[in-house]
Design a protein that fits this description.
It is built from 2 helices and 15 strands. The protein is an alpha+beta fold.
Length: 196
């Protein structure tokens, strides 16, 4: 098959950074609601660890899941951002959220998530876009930097409260160790039929 008739996508690895999408008040409301949810030890590759500390070496953090009905405005806003960025940049075939929105908690000194991709085996193989919402004011913590691997090096990402990042689910990224304070974020994935 000839590729002459195909149009390459120059934005296939783009990282979309959208500042001020969520107001300080919206972020604080989400944090208040999220911290009321029971936190579970964060898993790896879509698999929850069997016990506390089982994901050490890869991930040490707690997560909760936002109920779509109770958090409908948040789901609606994130959905619209993802669809807009997909239309503008990626052109992926998306069917919607791949999982409930994750409320991520870095609350203990040393919490982290090493280099990983959100696209993995099993149900995670359907993930195409990742969306991260920075809920915490960066003055509330130290360390815990979200970094994406780009052009051969780690690149720290914007951490202003209310910022949204959108990137392909195959993009390597990490959160460095928490040194002080607490950091909260939302993570969402948009799925579609397997890449082919």
């Amino acid at each position: 098959m000839s590729t002459a008739a195909l149009t390459p996508n120059p934005n296939i690895n783009a990282i979309a950074t959208l500042g001020g999408v969520f107001s300080r008040e919206e972020c604080e409301r989400i944090v208040t609601s999220g911290t009321r949810l029971a936190g579970k030890v964060g898993g790896v590759g879509g698999v929850a660890p069997a016990r506390e500390g089982a994901a050490d070496g890869v991930r040490k953090t707690a997560v909760s899941w936002l109920d779509p009905a109770a958090s409908e405005p948040v789901y609606r806003k994130i959905r619209q951002i993802a669809l807009d960025m997909n239309e503008k940049l990626y052109k992926f075939d998306l069917t919607g959220f791949g999982d409930p929105i994750q409320f991520t908690r870095y609350e203990r000194i040393g919490d982290y998530y090493t280099w990983h991709q959100d696209l993995a085996s099993g149900a995670s193989s359907l993930r195409k876009l990742s969306v991260v919402v920075q809920l915490s004011d960066p003055a509330a913590y130290r360390g815990c930097d979200l970094e994406l691997y780009s052009e051969g090096k780690p690149v720290p990402q914007a951490c202003t409260q209310g910022t949204v990042l959108v990137f392909p689910a195959w993009q390597l990224h990490r959160v460095t160790a928490l040194e002080a304070g607490v950091r909260y974020s939302l993570v969402a994935w948009f799925a579609g039929q397997p890449f082919r």
